[in-house]
Each structure stands twice: as structure tokens, then as C-alpha cells.
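Loading example: each entry is read as two labelled lines plus one structure line.
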Amino acid sequence: DAKTTQPTSMDCAEGRAANLPCNHSTISGNEYVYWYRQIHSQGPQYIIHGLKNNETNEMASLIITEDRKSSTLILPHATLRDTAVYYCIVRVKDSGGYNKLIFGAGTRLAVHP
Amino acid sequence: DVKVTQSSRYLVKRTGEKVFLECVQDMDHENMFWYRQDPGLGLRLIYFSYDVKMKEKGDIPEGYSVSREKKERFSLILESASTNQTSMYLCASRPGTVNTEAFFGQGTRLTVV
């Protein structure tokens, strides 16, 4: 299973870019990197995913290194509403061949005024 | 708007009771999942289902069972609730195609006393 490691917590000033790193050094060639976030008392919310090219959507950008061993989620202009726990996930296939999302502890991002 | 609905937001049950947690999705998704979330442990997969009447064990299935009689509904059953099953339970669904996002419900906070 490809595991991920993320910093436990980060701070960001409102209006600035939040750059959240993730290491996934054991990722294999066909495994995608997913990012979700969980705002307090709510279920996780999908943000973005990618394989090897950088991706951008209305919420964030995802930068994946060329060797695919790490990635960075970028929130270009963080707002107070972006305060949440951010999960970097690699989809893994279990022994039965089923795709599972395995969540780690995530990074607690605090956006402050 | 896509929707995953969990029947209860908060639930308090007694030790030894049989507990049913219900999850309904309106997106015609093939795959459905049950996770539990505990402080310091992140989200852990209990069971998942990739089709009606099909179920697979996740990482921590002990003490739980599931039922998927209809495509839109995935039930988590605690046959005899115990205090160590006090947790936040999250249901998710996604299409059967590979590498698609998962949608989560709001969660059920279960307390077993």
C-alpha cells in the first residue's frame, strides 16, 4: 500500500496562498493522488486528484513532482472558510483488486485574519 | 446536487443494543463505503460494497456487519454495541468507474453508554 505523510498542522494568513505538502514515496505508477478536506463536524469533501500532470480546478491546484514521490496542494487565496483538515490520499488496490481510499491523519490548516 | 444522507446526526445507544446506521445516496452510485473516525486515528474503512447484495471487509470489520439490499441504501449494523464503538461514522459513495471522486455524508456521531 502506498502510504502518505503530511505535516500535522499548518497556519496561513487570510488572502495568502496555502501550500500543503504530502510525501508518497512508495506510490506506484498507476496510483492517483487525491486530496480531500474535512471542515469541523462535516463529512470529507473532495478537492482534486491527479496522476502525474499538474491539475487545477476552481478550488485548488495540485503540483506533483516528476518522480511522483511528493505533491503539494495549493489554495491560491486562503479564506477563513478554508480552515479544515486536509487529507492527501493514494488510492490503493486491496488483495481482492478493489480500489480503496485510505485516509491518514491529515494536516490541520488554520487560516487566520 | 449530489447527496449522501445519513439517517441520524447524533445517536445514543446502550451497551448490548443492536444499532442500525442508514445511508442513502441519490446518485445511482455502485460503490458505497462505511468509515469510522476517531481522534488521532483518522478515517478507517469498516466495510464497502461495490454492488447490490455485495460486501467486502475493510480494515476494521470486527463487531460490524452491513447490508446492501438496494443500490441506493447501505446499512451498517452493530450487532451488540460496545463502548469502544463510540465514534463518528461516515458513509461515502462513488461511481463504479475507476478514479472518480467519492461523496461523503455528514456523519453520525454515535455514543454507546
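The two ends of chain B are 36 Å apart (CA to CA).
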